[in-house]
Amino acid sequence: MIAFLAALNVKGTQESTRLNLFLAVADLITQAVLVVIGMAWSSADVLVTMSTSGGAELGDFLLGSRSG
Fold first, then answer.
1. HEC letters along 1-68
2. How buried is 25 (Cβ within 10 angstroms: 0-12 exposed, 13-18 middle, 19+ buried)?
3. Diameter of the chain by CA atoms?
4. Around 45, how many Cα atoms within 13 Å sit in the side-chain half-sphere?
5. Contact in structure between 25 and 37 (CB atoms under 8 Å)
6. How far apart are CA 51 and CA 61, in angstroms?
7. Are 67 and 57 in contact (CB under 8 A)?
8. Whole-number Å distance between alpha carbons of 46 and 49
9. pTM > 0.90: yes or no
10. Are 23 and 33 contacting, i.e. CB atoms less than 8 angstroms apart?
11. How many whole angstroms separate alpha carbon 17 and alpha carbon 5?
């Protein structure tokens, strides 16, 4: 990987810019897919209940768990 990036750097900045743009777009798409999967996987009523009733403590939130 390091050799590939070094060769790309020697080749020129235009190719390097294209690769960086491609990787940035791929990263954005990956994050969007993960958000959609997370929203589809979780139960909406649990999310609404926890956000409106204060059902989670800060520690529970940081651990990703729910008390009770």
1. CHHHHHHHHHHCHHHHHHHHHHHHHHHHHHHHHHHHHHHHHCCHHHHHHHHHHCCCCHHHHHHCCCCC
2. exposed
3. 59
4. 0
5. no
6. 11
7. yes
8. 5
9. no
10. no
11. 12
What is the average per-residue pLDDT within 7-18? 78
Token pair belonging to 14: 């235009």
Structure tokens at 55: 């059902």
* Residue 55 reports pLDDT greater than 70: no
In this prediction, residues 39-43 reach a mean pLDDT of 75
Token look-up 């190719």 returns 15
